[in-house]
């Protein structure tokens, strides 16, 4: 979308905007950037798709009448060998197998059972190996979505409840791509974005993160808690406490929804990186053992410093297939699913382009399967890229704080709740936060099930559902966004007349006197410095620089609150971040 088109959208909705600001009110001045600005173009490079294998998968699993069948696809045998010798294949079942201290890490597997064509599976996660003589020529891990007796009972209960209350429940699916800003989504995934917008997804222009990294930002969506509250209530570093965390997927599960959670790259996953994870599976369908098996037992191809491929498929494709199979299996039942992808976006700003076509195909498939007619589909990220060259730019500072967020609602919901849908579209051009998305998920459940009463956010009592009419005049404080992460501070201007060599040197002195720059660390290079003025009269100074110590280079960024009258005075250091 060109900037002019974006501005016309804002004026249609009656929102104050200009060619300099996306939001321009008495409480928020959010700058407007071109996704292919001069700053962005310095780091942008199209990266082509990667095929994880030249061969087709030799085995696959099909589900018929809730029974899984593992099959050898014999038409592809000639891709793997050309002799007349028979291959020997076997399969093992994969199971979750943690320890008392690490209950959410680890898998085990059964002995390998031989088969030569088709076998009916007794479990849903399976490892396959095929040998030609003593040489292993093929291996893979498969996952099938089967309905257990417990889930079947839940579905019966849910349908009885629907008939009694005469309410049509709205299913929810969150497709998460880690570390992608709204503008980087536009740069690197244009096919996907165009498909989403062409199918009535609403793009949120002022969606602002509330903390630094993944855990506090995403846990806020599930719990309405900030980081301090999450640590105090959920105690993620103690075994068993995340199981007691008030995550909204438990509310959906208790109301008869079928729940699911998948996240690739298990080592850095949201609830396992430096945390204890879950003692018991947190959702009805918990795909961590399957994805862990793919990462640990198959050959992994690292691309752009990330474990992109696990065997014949990219890890992202495995997550997308889980989402497709899960939603197709439960299309006519209420479900709540989170499908998270780290392995093509977390470490490199341009890698999402490798998966653009695949992502577009995924959304085409779920539309074909009728999922967009039944579900609220949210495509989002937790934050923008947090390191790399782009973070030395003013635009990169904003992009880190403004992740991608697109929301689709089925036609029947739009017709049943026209005012709520209009509010959602209007709110797309206002300042919003992760706490608002939490409130939206609360309202969806309350609208779907009359026995659920929406619970407000403890971290942000003033935050509202995106179905509400959020005030135009809203500022970061009302949205629960701390000052350090707020993008309403005006536009940082590198050519501001207040910026002098002396001002930059005083910033460095401030950092040394506060102990942030240790003795012996030398300033190697000033990368940029800029000043902004916010609507409430405050001024801010943003500096990016490089240090050297013992021939070791490091990059840093500092954000200060300053006074400009009568001279520049440094009042406080709001953040100090190492970028490399």
From TrEMBL:
Highest taxon listed in the record's lineage: Eukaryota
Transmembrane intervals: none
An example Pfam family from this entry, by short name, is DUF229
> What are the annotated GO cellular component locations?
extracellular space
Coiled coil (UniProt feature): none
Tell me if Disulfide bond is a UniProt keyword of this record: no
- Is Signal one of the keywords? yes
Instruction: Report keywords, A-Z.
Output: Signal
Q: Which InterPro entries match?
A: Alkaline_phosphatase_core_sf (IPR017850), DUF229 (IPR004245)
Spell out the CDD domains in the cross-references: ALP_like
Secretion signal span: 1-17
Q: What is this protein called?
A: DUF229 domain containing protein
């Amino acid at each position: 979308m060109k900037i002019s088109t974006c501005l016309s959208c804002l004026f249609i909705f009656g929102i104050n905007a200009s060619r300099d600001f996306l939001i321009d009110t008495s409480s928020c001045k959010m700058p407007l950037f071109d996704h292919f600005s001069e700053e962005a173009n310095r780091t942008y490079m199209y990266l082509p798709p990667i095929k994880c294998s030249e061969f087709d998968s030799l085995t696959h699993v099909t589900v018929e009448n809730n029974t899984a069948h593992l099959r050898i696809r014999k038409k592809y045998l000639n891709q793997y060998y050309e002799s007349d010798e028979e291959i020997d294949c076997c399969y093992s079942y994969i199971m979750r197998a943690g320890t008392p201290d690490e209950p959410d890490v680890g898998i085990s597997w059964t002995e390998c059972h031989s088969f030569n064509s088709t076998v009916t599976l007794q479990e849903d996660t399976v490892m396959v190996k095929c040998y030609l003589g003593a040489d292993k020529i093929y291996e893979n891990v498969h996952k099938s979505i089967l309905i257990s007796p417990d889930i079947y009972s839940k579905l019966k209960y849910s349908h009885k409840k629907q008939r009694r209350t005469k309410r049509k429940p709205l299913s929810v699916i969150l497709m998460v791509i880690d570390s992608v800003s709204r503008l980087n989504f536009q740069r690197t995934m244009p096919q996907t974005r165009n498909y989403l917008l062409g199918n009535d997804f609403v793009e949120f222009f002022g969606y602002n993160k509330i903390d630094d990294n993944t855990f506090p930002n995403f846990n806020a969506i599930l719990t309405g808690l900030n980081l301090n509250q999450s640590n105090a209530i959920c105690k993620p570093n103690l075994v068993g406490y995340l199981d007691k965390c008030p995550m909204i997927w438990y509310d959906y599960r208790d109301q008869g929804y079928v729940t699911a959670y998948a996240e690739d790259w298990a080592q850095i996953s949201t609830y396992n990186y430096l945390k204890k994870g879950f003692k018991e599976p947190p959702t009805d369908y918990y795909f961590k053992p399957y994805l862990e098996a793919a990462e640990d037992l198959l050959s992994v191809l690292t691309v752009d410093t990330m474990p992109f491929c696990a065997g014949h498929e990219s890890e992202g494709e495995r997550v997308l297939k889980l989402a497709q199979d899960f939603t197709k299996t439960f299309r006519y039942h209420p479900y709540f699913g989170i499908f998270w992808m780290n392995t093509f976006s977390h470490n490199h700003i341009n890698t999402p382009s490798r998966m653009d076509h695949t992502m577009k195909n995924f959304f085409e498939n779920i539309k074909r399967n009728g999922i967009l007619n039944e579900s609220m589909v949210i495509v989002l990220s937790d934050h923008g890229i947090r390191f790399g060259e782009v973070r030395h730019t003013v635009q990169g500072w904003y992009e880190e704080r403004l992740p991608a967020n697109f929301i689709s609602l089925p036609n029947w919901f739009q017709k049943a709740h026209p005012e709520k849908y209009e509010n959602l579209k209007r709110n797309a051009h206002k300042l919003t936060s992760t706490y608002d998305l939490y409130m939206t998920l609360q309202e969806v459940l309350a609208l779907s099930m009359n026995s659920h009463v929406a619970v407000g956010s403890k971290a942000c009592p003033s935050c509202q559902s995106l179905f509400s009419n959020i005030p135009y005049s809203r500022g970061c404080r009302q949205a629960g966004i701390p000052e350090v992460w707020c993008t309403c501070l005006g536009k940082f201007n590198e050519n501001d007349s207040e910026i002098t060599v002396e001002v930059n040197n005083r910033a460095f002195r401030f950092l040394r006197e506060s102990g942030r720059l240790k003795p012996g660390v030398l300033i190697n290079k000033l990368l940029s410095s800029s000043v902004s003025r916010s609507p409430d009269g405050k001024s801010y100074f943003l500096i990016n620089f490089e240090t050297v110590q013992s021939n070791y280079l490091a990059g840093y960024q500092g954000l200060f609150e300053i006074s400009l009258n009568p001279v520049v005075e440094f009042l406080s250091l709001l953040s100090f971040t190492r970028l490399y």
